[in-house]
Design a protein that fits this description.
heterodimer; A: 113 residues; alpha+beta; Alpha-Beta Plaits; 4-stranded antiparallel β-sheet; two-stranded antiparallel sheet; 3 helices; flat; B: 416 residues; mainly alpha; Rna Polymerase Sigma Factor, Chain: A; YCII-related domain-containing protein (chain A); Dimeric_a/b-barrel (chain A); YCII (chain A)
Chain lengths: 113, 416
Amino acid sequence: MAQYAVLIYSPAPADPMEITPDYLALLDRYPAQVEELGGKIVTGFALQPSTTATAIRGDLVTDGPFIEAKEVVAGFFILEAPDLDVALKIAKLNPATIDGGVEVRPLFTPPAE
Amino acid sequence: MSDAGTAAAERAVADAHRREWAFVLAATARVAGDLDVAEECVQDAYLAALAAWARDGVPDKPGAWLTATAKRKALDVLRREKVFRSKMPLLVEPVEAAEPDEPGEDAVPDDRLRLVFTCCHPALAREAQVALTLRLVCGVATGDIARAFLVSETTMAARVTRAKKKIAAARIPYRVPEAAELPERLDAVLTVIHLLFTTGHTAPTGADLVRVDLVDRAVHLTRMLLALMPDEPEVRGLLALLLLTDARRATRADAEGRLLTLEQQDRSAWDRTAIVEGNALVLGAFRTGRVGRYALQAAIASLHAVAPSYAATDWPQIVRLYDELLKRWPSPVVALNRAVAVSMVDGPTAALAEVDALAADPRLAGYHYLPAIRADLLRRLDRPEAAAEAYRTALDLVDNDAERAFLTARLTETTR
């Protein structure tokens, strides 16, 4: 099994308290779908809205996310899947893909000595 | 060893490189579980063949000899590397690696399909898909791929390495997609092959109009794919399209290398054998009742191929085929080509209106065929000033020397 980070992007500011009931219903169904497709969610987090973020670049501390964009990271989860095809199939079903999108990125494991 | 033996071995190795590379690499990749290792081992096997075949004679089944040798080398590498478990992201059948190699053992033909689908995986950028396919499926040297796509060898090598790393790190599987995904995934494969062909057919930049090696690679690759997937009408459609388009190769430029339009080409010099084969493939694809964009494009090429002259072409039928094509593939380039056919049915005025409407499409900004087609319509409408203006716009955008010479000649004619 390989592990992937699935980064969830939603329209800024991606406030989890403003999630619609429809979206919530889709989210509720998601874990079952993940398992059905042969994956497993290892752990996952939702984030406070991007308006609460603070970015630091060098010495400069600024209000807001690191990159100003229409879509911001709303959360992420760690997905275990046999290969990228399964991971992508699972990621495609994530409700975030409706208004925003997701990025699937393999976790780094240091090469064995 | 005799010189004759060496020469025969060299010929046999070159021949096996052309015919069997994909087969050997695909089978080795399954054992090695890593495309990089597989590629290295296959290269070594071809090198070993040069000496061994000169010494012992060419084996009955060169492909099987090469596969067995490359697999053995791959197993050696894996044994040397203790970490081989973690290095095998591609490995589908781990037991296979433990099996003894028997010379003469045939790999399942599916291996080549796995290789093609892995190289053309949608998670890879299109340019990486193209580079990987040429490198891994066709065995073309990285330097030659770089020259074909006019980038430095370093850039191309980095592109191939990056793609191979992504395949390993992200675990892009080494397998043929399931039936449900197949149409979409196959379309990506066909797009890559078609891109190879068009890059060769009208080299986007440079002095020669055609890069024969790329065209031949594309045709060869499609034939291989059709042999492996005989029931896919779009594979048939693509092969037909390539054959029917390439049948005009000898007539696309005159003795001085000047570009000739379809209207000016000597139809008696078109490759009849290719046309006959292409037409049969089109019929075969249409008989399945599942035509896609390649079969439709091939059908259009087929109507051109059988027409006695440009004027006597079945233009109304071509417009109908373009309508079908647009339904399946709503591309502004298709709409532009349709406009040319419309000009032959309803006249240049009707076509000009369609071309002008398309000019607003941002996807066609910078596409030199649009002003070139516009110029031709204006020329036919006897509006020389406007035509000259459009030819100049096209000239600003074109990169291929033969096409530039053609447009310059047309511009001179118009302003005379």
